[in-house]
Amino acid sequence: MKILVTGGAGFIGSAVVRLAVARGHEVVNLDALTYAACLDNVAGAAQSNLYSFEQADIRDRARLDEIFALHRPDVVMHLAAESHVDRSIDGPGDFILTNINGTYNMLEAARSYWAAVGKPAGFRFHHISTDEVFGSLGAEGQFTEATPYDPRSPYSASKAASDHLVRAWHETYGLPVVLTNCSNNYGPYHFPEKLIPVVILNALAGKPLPIYGDGSNVRDWLYVEDHADALLLVVEKGVLGRSYNIGGENERSNLQLVQTLCRILDAKRPKAQGSYADQITFVTDRPGHDARYAIDPSRIREELGWRPSVTVEQGLEKTVQWYLDNEDWWKPLQARHGVGQRLGVKA
Q: CATH second-level architecture of 2-187+221-249+293-309?
C-alpha cells in the first residue's frame, strides 16, 4: 500500500511510519512539525526509498489537495491532532482548529481525491481516536464500541467531534472509513510531557514524581508498537464504517504505574541511597480528571485476531531501558515550550 500518514512525526504516528516502512509499504508522512513533533522519531525510516515527507498543516485545505494529487495514496491514516489534556485546559482553541477543522479538511480533501481517481474499492480513510471520548467509568465495566460518547475535557470533546464528522462523511457521502479508539499509549519516543516519560526523566534528575490527586485514577495502558500493529491491521482488514476499540488489557492506577516505574529504575539505575519511590509527590488534581478508562477489545480480537504482545510490566521495562539508552533524543526536547511545567491548572 501507499499510506498517507498525518502526524507521522508524533509519538503514535511515528510508530506507524516505522512499522509500515519495515513491512514494505510506501509511506507519505504529512506533519506540521508543531511542538510535540520530532523528525528524529522516523530517522531510520527516512533512509528508505519507501518514505517521503511533506511538511503541511491539516488546517490548510489547498495544501492537502496538492499532497493528495502528488502522492496518490491508497489509504489515509489520520493521526494528526493536538493530544495533551492539560494543554487543552489552558488553550482549547488549538484543539478545536486542529482536531475538528483539521479533520474536516482531511475528510474533504480525501473525498475529493477519492472521487477524482474513480472511487477505487480499496481506498480507506482510517481515523485514529481515543477512548477519552467515552468519558469516565466507575469501578466496574469497560468501554465498548457502543458506549455513548461523554467527553469531559476540551481535548476529548474535540476528538469526539472529529469521530462524528468521520462517521457522517461515511453515511452522507459514502467515503470508505474505519475508526479506532485506543487506550493510553506509552513506549519509545513518547514526548516528555506525558506521565510515563515525566516520571522516568524526573526520577533520573532527582526531581519530584508528580501524581495527580491520590493516584487512584485508572488507565488501560497500550504499548505504542502494539498499537501501530493493530492500526495497520485495521486499515487493511477492518470492516468499512466500523469502529474498533484497541486496548492493552493492562489496567493500572496512576500510583501503581509510578511505583512500577520506580521498581524498574531501582533495578536498572540504582540510587546511591533509597528508592526512586521516595520522590513520589501528590499534587493538586487535574480539573475534571476522569476516574477510570478501560477498554473491552473483544471486537478487534474476535474479528481481526489481534491481541497486545506485551504486559504493562514488560512494556514499561522496555520503555525505561529505551529512555536510559536515548538521552540524546529526549534531552533537547526538554527545552520546548511547556515541557517540565505544570499545565492544565485553570478551572
A: 3-Layer(aba) Sandwich (3.40)
Among 40, 47, 45, 62, residue whose Cα is nearest residue 5 = 45
Cα–Cα dist 271/281, whole Å? 18
| pTM attached to this predicted model | 0.95
Q: Where are the domains of the chain?
A: 2-187+221-249+293-309
Pairing mode, if any, of strands 177-182 and 243-246?
Answer: parallel
Residue 155 annotated among the catalytic residues of the structure: yes
In sequence order, which residues have a C-beta less than 8 Å from that of residue 22 and are 6 or more positions away?
45
For this structure, is 131 an active site residue? yes
Q: Is 140 a catalytic residue?
A: no
Owner of C-alpha cell 498543516: 57
Grid coordinates representing 43? Answer: 530517522
**C-alpha cell of residue 218:** 485508572
Which one of 155, 189, 276, 323 is the catalytic residue? 155
**Site of grid cell 480525501:** 110
Average pLDDT across each block of 10 residues of the chain; the chain has 347 residues. List them in order.
98 98 98 94 98 98 98 98 87 96 98 98 97 93 97 96 98 98 96 91 95 94 98 98 96 96 98 96 86 95 97 97 96 76 56
In the chain, the amino acid numbered 164 is H
Which of the residues 31, 54, 132, 317 is marked catalytic? 132
Give dist(CA 247, CA 308) in Å, integer. 8
